[in-house]
Amino acid sequence: MYENLYGSPKDSLKLYAGNKGNEEKEAGLLECVHSILPQKYLTGPSLAPLVDIYISILSRNLNEKMFQVGSWTQIEDFWSFFTQVICRCTIETLLGSAILKQYPGIIKDYLKFAEATAGFLPCLPRFLASAAYEGPRDRLLEGVVKWLKANHSGSEFANIGDDDPVWDEHKGSKFVQERDDVFAKTEGVDLKSRAAEILSVIHGSNSIIIPCAFWTIIELLQQPQLGKQVTADISQHHLPQPGEYDVSSILNTPLIQSMHTEVRRLRVPTVTTRTNEVDNLQLDEQWRLPKGTTVVLLSRDISLHADFWAKARPRTIERPLEEFWAERFLISSRTAPSVKREKQLKDNSNSGSFSMEGLEPLDLVLNDSDATLAVFFTQFELQLCDDSESLAAGLLPPVREAAFGTVKPLDEVAVRIRKRKIGPVFNGLNINL
Known about the structure:
Elements: H1 14-17, H2 23-41, H3 48-63, E1 73-75, H4 78-95, H5 98-102, H6 106-116, H7 134-151, E2 167-168, E3 172-173, H8 174-184, H9 191-222, H10 224-235, E4 238-239, E5 244-245, H11 247-251, H12 254-267, E6 271-275, E7 281-282, E8 288-289, E9 294-298, H13 299-303, H14 306-312, H15 339-349, H16 362-379, E10 380-384, H17 388-394, E11 415-419
Antiparallel strand pairs: 1-11, 2-3, 4-5, 6-9, 7-8, 10-11
Keywords: Heme, Iron, Metal-binding
GO molecular function, one term: steroid hydroxylase activity
């Protein structure tokens, strides 16, 4: 994947394949960059300052669009608008603002790269994959290499001390600084390899944050009462005058948690490939997996499997699984697990040898998605230009036709937007279709 998708030089691929004699050292490197550092910077309290920076960047970007208080601005293609805005904000949050000036085409090139790789499967032979992504990918690598030379050169470029700021406009976030510092000090890793790793972080973040936040907004606009309820929940954790949000509290709201899970289940299908490294892995009573076999795991198989959901939690199939239902994963206090039971479940989930290596923590996705909702629905008003029935009939892709990849609307979705009047805390969402 690192060679075909991200353009890593062949000499650096031994880091991911396991080089004889250096397995322990290389495993330690991958554990550090794919697990330890994400846990350090992108989960829990450590993530909050970075989310605040994302909110500030997103708010500034939207307010620079010249939206008015008293009149509507119509955006004919909300998907294109939204992807450009969020992509710009995530890149600036991760890498700093200097790269946007040094490499003005980074957003355009990344979006071309993302579109061309939407159906990429790591296990496919190279000749079966589209080559349309190679041009923008190579420009991305070239631009990031120039940025690294300007801002991450020398042996002590990373400002990652306890007293250092969590974000630097030139060097980027502490997460990116320390991650790149680890690679820079690793033998056999050149600038292009480091750039490929940074591209993997950009893509890993945007490829999930953008569809999660987009489809959440669309579902809220289609269901005005749900939109009002969610915005009321958000407003309880928003101080409008300083423009501050308690995103962790927003994230812990049961309805919002359930809604996020439902959006990911229905609108963000994922694919995972894994190679079995043990002899005859027992799958069930009838099937075993030979050593060296690569398997493809599709989330869509589980998300629409009624029998599985019925056994796991019967309430989830009270409405068809093909239908968006924000409350699907809400549970009553009587059936909620105790604190002790929750700890047991977490402990059990961490057992075994299965690894999600290479995937950034879900905390970043959920926090940035909630931060996006908070800014859009407390600082602005939004309306769908078409009624929800027309949207559902003509623009929502059939859920059983996309096994994986980015789920986009089938046609342009037009949305009106205007600034909110400055006043007391807002307790509802005005969505008059």
